[in-house]
Amino acid sequence: MASEAPALHRLLDDWAGRMESLLAMDDEDIYWEIEHAVGAQFYTESWHPRTPSRPTVNSRRLLERLSKGWFGTVGPASPQTRYMNDGVLYFDATPAAGVAPVVEKPASGVWTASFLPSGATTWDRGESRFKRLGRELYELHFDESGVVVYVIDSLDDFAVLASRFPGAVVDGRVRLDWQKVKAEFDAVHLTAKGLLTADRCPVVTSEGVAELSGWGSQSTVWFRRPPGLRVGTSAS
Length: 236
Fold this sequence. Notes:
By secondary structure, this protein is α+β, with helices and mostly antiparallel strands. The chain has helices spanning 6-14, 19-24, 27-39, 56-65, 124-127, 155-164, 178-184, 192-198, and strands spanning 80-84, 110-113, 136-141, 149-152, 166-170, 173-176, 187-190, 203-205, 208-210, 219-222, 230-233.
């Protein structure tokens, strides 16, 4: 029997015996349940893929649910959102001295979040911990048809990316060579389903084992300015 991603396993365990209630939730509530399940890694001693402890039909039904409605928008929709102080985007900021050029996440780029159905954003709850910074929410409007985006919507999607762009081996894991990814794509986008099924799941490449970690769902890292970009505060 195939193993389950740790976050997926945790979510299904949390809702064991209540699957119908989970599937009946609106998209936004399910989204935050996913974030809660992924966040469990920070207070769980062992976090790795596990053998399913319940009927695998539950997993299939949940993943089918995460392909519909708001979740069915695969790729970064315009507008994207970002909390900032000055509204200036630094796509090619030079990494700080001593920072390795190949890391689990790109060392440079502009990170954005997505709007939820209610008009809130997937960044809001995280930003609430940093109110002291006084950052404003900005909207980034762009031409969706003019960007080339790699979308991680599953473990297989991450495995393909890691196999195509392997970099240095650090602490026993192959890190992606983000400079090579940047040469081919304008951005990389991680969906909620992608986070749930790929985060902290080792995949074997020709150069060793790679593992996605440190990302948030419905997030996008932009390597260059998308066409038609307009930036403004949500209030403007």
